[in-house]
Write a structure and sequence with these properties.
By secondary structure, this protein is an alpha+beta fold. The protein has one domain: Phosphatase 2c, domain 1 (4-Layer Sandwich). Helix 6 packs antiparallel against helix 7. The radius of gyration is 17 Å and the shape is globular. The N and C termini lie close together (about 5 Å).
Length: about 240
């Protein structure tokens, strides 16, 4: 497995509150994590970095190559719970961090199987044979409206208040994550991103760049460049994995 990523403050924000990490747990296993912090300039950075580090360390310490699928699910859920508790507790302890939180999307790839976990509206995609699937489902007000039939998906892209999320890591004492499972094959791609990317590019645009970009680091940079050409009002992070 190979991986590449870019992260950038964008064109409007003074600070980049996104955080990204990749860990090779063993020769057959890769863990990728992306977080998008919320709060003031300082607290958003703290929330995303803290959640990412706690989540990553918990998975690293718990991972065993012979884990069953249900054990992997439980491990990822526990890592989210610990990250949530840590960020929430920090926000309770220090007034300057009060109310901070972060999204979290991660994927653990072991051999030919990928397990995605998410809280918030950062996304995980599977790209295969010139097709693309958004695997994760946004925890957002707009997604709830789409689910209820009040908005079409194409209307949701530019709907006011699109950035309002219904779940986050660290804003409440308890949060819930969703898990998604996919069989994967050699030559396919996984992509994790914050909403700074997905709000500016639709799925087919992402697919086009990944499918046609021979240099995948340049592909990530091109995706970033497109968001910046469109104004990039938010931080932008894109992480691409080739299986």
């Amino acid at each position: 497995m190979q991986y590449w990523y870019v992260t950038d403050a964008g064109c409007v924000r003074a600070n980049n509150q996104d955080a990204v990490a990749v860990e090779e747990l063993d020769k057959d296993t890769l863990l990728c994590v992306v977080c998008d912090g919320m709060g003031g300039a300082k607290s958003g950075n703290v929330a995303s970095a803290l959640a990412l580090d706690v989540f990553k360390q918990e998975v690293k310490q718990s991972w065993k190559p012979d884990m069953q699928d249900e054990d992997v699910d439980r491990m990822l859920q526990n890592a989210v719970k610990l990250a949530n508790f840590t960020v929430f507790d920090q926000g309770q302890q220090l007034e300057e961090f009060a109310g901070m939180g972060t999204t979290l999307v991660a994927v653990l790839v072991h051999k030919n199987y990928a397990t995605f976990v998410n809280v918030g509206d950062s996304r995980g995609y599977l790209i295969y044979n010139s097709g693309i699937e958004q695997v994760t489902v946004d925890h957002s007000v707009v997604q709830m409206m789409v689910d209820r039939g009040e908005l079409l998906p194409e209307q949701a892209r530019n709907y006011p208040g699109k950035n309002l999320i219904t779940r986050a890591v660290g804003t409440e004492a308890v949060t819930e994550c969703d898990l998604f499972h996919r069989s994967v094959e050699q030559g396919e791609f996984l992509l994790l991103c914050t909403d700074g990317l997905s709000n500016q590019l639709d799925d087919q645009e992402i697919l086009f760049e990944v499918a046609h970009g021979l240099d995948k680091q340049k592909c990530c940079q091109t995706l970033l460049d497109i968001t910046k050409m469109r104004g990039a009002p938010d931080n932008v992070t894109c992480l691409l994995v080739e299986l």
